[in-house]
């Protein structure tokens, strides 16, 4: 038998990081206690990792669990090494931990992207996004 949530329980949802109207970064301005109802208002610094989506969080978790082994990340993602490295560099850029110029040498060629689509390692949508960035 599953446990029912207690009355007034707060369900955890991932907060959006970007404004749905203008696309700018959202600021955390209110914090609340789900237990007693206490609320704090102000402008609070948000966590850099909180802006990651579920797939990016999973990719970072796999990378850390494999002690920084990009080959393990490549296997987990089911893509080629250059694509795994590109995605990881994009993640580092999103976290503000890498220079944008670092991604340039590892960018796959158009032919590599098309070959990965043909092999099924890359979806057409992912390939379109990669090709648009070339």
TrEMBL record:
InterPro entries in UniProt = DUF2089, DUF2089_Zn_ribbon
**Domain DUF2089, chain residue ranges per copy:** 19-50, 52-97
Signal peptide segment: none
Please indicate which superkingdom the organism of origin belongs to. Answer: Bacteria
- Pfam families xref list: DUF2089, Zn_ribbon_DUF2089
Task: Give the protein's recorded name.
Answer: DUF2089 domain-containing protein
Q: What organism is recorded for this protein?
A: Friedmanniella luteola
């Amino acid at each position: 038998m599953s446990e029912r949530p207690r009355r007034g329980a707060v369900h955890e949802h991932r907060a959006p990081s970007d404004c749905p109207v203008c696309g700018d970064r959202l600021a955390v301005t209110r914090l609340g206690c789900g237990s007693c109802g206490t609320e704090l208002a102000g402008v609070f610094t948000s966590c850099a990792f909180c802006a990651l989506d579920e797939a990016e969080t999973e990719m970072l978790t796999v990378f850390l669990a494999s002690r920084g082994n990009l080959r393990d990340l490549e296997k987990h993602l089911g893509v080629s090494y250059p694509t795994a490295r590109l995605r990881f560099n994009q993640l580092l850029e999103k976290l503000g931990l890498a220079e944008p110029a670092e991604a340039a040498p590892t960018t796959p060629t158009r032919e590599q992207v098309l070959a990965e689509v043909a092999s099924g390692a890359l979806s057409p949508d992912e390939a379109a996004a990669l090709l648009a960035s070339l």
